[in-house]
Design brief:
By secondary structure, the chain is mainly alpha-helical. The protein contains four helices and three strands; from the N terminus they run E-H-H-E-E-H-H.
Length: about 80
């Protein structure tokens, strides 16, 4: 079964944020697109959309975006340490 990949506008809509908000999340390093096409289009899979929803939820709960980003960075460090 092929993964559903969505362009930025549809991914933002599915995650419940504006396209501008998703672009901001990308700019500040909170979210990375699943793929970038040869033409530069950013596309997202279901996992990326869930992460966007998580960022939105945490931010709505009062967590600043900077703290959310730091949390994600720590999570990546832990995962890399577990793999190494």
């Amino acid at each position: 079964m092929a993964k559903e990949l969505l362009q930025i506008g549809l991914a933002a809509k599915k995650a419940g944020v504006s396209t501008q908000t998703l672009q901001y999340y990308i700019m500040v390093g909170l979210i990375e697109p699943t793929e970038v096409t040869k033409t530069g289009r950013r596309i997202f899979d279901a996992d990326a959309i869930e992460k966007i929803k998580l960022v939105k939820s945490l931010n709505s709960s009062g967590y600043p975006l900077r703290a959310i980003r730091e949390l994600f960075i720590e999570q990546q460090k832990i995962r890399k340490g577990a793999v190494s």
